[in-house]
Amino acid sequence: MIDTTSNIPDRTWLKGRRLVILGLGASGQSVARFFSYDGLVGADDDPARRPVEIPPFDGTFKPDDVLVLSPGIARDHPAPHPLVAKALKDKIEIISDIDILARNHRDLCYIGVTGTNGKSTVTSMLSHILTHANKPHYCGGNIGTPVLDFTFSPEKKLCVLEVSSFQLETISHVDWDIGVLLNIAPDHQDRYADMQAYAHAKMRLLNHSRHCVIVCEDPYTRQAATALGAGADLIIHADDPDPPDHPGAVITVQGSVITGTDRKEDTKKHWTIDVGGNPILRVPHQVINAATAVTVARRLGCDTPAITDGLNSYEGLAHRMAYCGRSGRVTFINDSKATNIHATIRALDSYENIYWIAGGRLKEKDLSPLRAHLGKVRGVYLIGEGSGRLFQAISDLVPCQQARQLRDAVGSAYADASKHGGVVLLSPVGASFDQFDNYQARGQAFADVAGFLGAQDSKRMRS
User: Fold this and answer.
1) Residue 88, by phi and psi: left (phi above 0), alpha (psi -120 to 50) or beta?
2) Tens-digit pLDDT profile for residues 122-172
3) CA 139 to mean position of chain CA atoms
4) How far is the C-alpha of 64 from the C-alpha of 448, rounded, in Å?
5) How far apart are the C-alpha atoms of 138 and 127, rounded to whole Å?
6) What is 298-320 written as a DSSP string?
7) What is the pLDDT of residues 200-243, one digit of tens each?
């Protein structure tokens, strides 16, 4: 079990130094609030985002300055932001808001969760389990609350953080007690020179973790498992044709059943948890997510009843394969968060008779991996910038039509699905920024249209 002890904030590391905040979005403004706007300056490419409480940065670094970099700002590829380049040249220390948290609260037990897909789900699921186990904790990072907006209290000794590759590029002062790596698949190709560079950013979490939990499902995670040996717990599929020969604890997933031991040598202390009682967790990738959360929870001392209660009551996250309602024989599923091929493939493999809405600002150059996962797709309705490329990539295998707006695509998909029954699935493959402010706005627009269509159908049936 991981030892967890409370802490007392320590700000001595910052004495006499000035903070320069680059990027004044949610995380940047939380840094300013944390320090009560004292002894800091800020910059943003959009001057309107700088609150009046934050003095402007004049572009000249002092030798003892500390640059707090928001994760959305490039540190390296395709080119560093001009102020980052200047900071690197002037040998200015560059940190993140999570670094500030760790420096001010050194003795918290830190759990970091990363991966191309599933990290928000695993983070929220683990938090839900810890709540049921009566283990006070913080939860945030790349999900939900910026870390410096936590309401700190002595009884909270655990800190569960979702961390993206962008954040991991800069984090250097966190001693992670447990690092979780779910998967590595092509994503954010505009921010990395190649897949190796992207994988390297993810691996920074494992390199600074006392213990690791790794889902072995791609070459990168398998390589990491081999390198770490007994320092990692592995999550594997029971039907894996080439299971890793691993000296540490191995947790297997078969159907909805998760089986493992807390230590490899504890062969007489097997535990088994069946997550099939929760409909949300019945699809294969969700069982893997649950197995990961369970493995970490057991490392943190949670018992099986509390874990089971937490899993049974877990309701999932919005915009991640979320149930949006049903009208007649048509079910609406909102997977707006699926902004890369790997995430969308999971959705396409999870349902039958799919009427699939896809498009947006595509991240990947090669769309061919989608072709092997179209067997359950009955029609495709394409939107946004990526509609043309997607049409070229898959229209020879499945009927495709292009729609101007999301509402048009939902209407057409619903009309077709109503004839035979099935699932209208928004799982876009691409980012939302061509037509929406973010994936949440896109998902909400889908849910709104789905609700309207369902209400109209019910009204017709009553009349």
Assistant:
1) alpha
2) 999 999 999 999 999 999 998 888 999 999 888 899 999 999 999 999 898
3) 13
4) 51
5) 8
6) HHTT--HHHHHHHHHT----TTS
7) 999 999 999 999 999 998 999 999 999 998 889 999 998 888 88
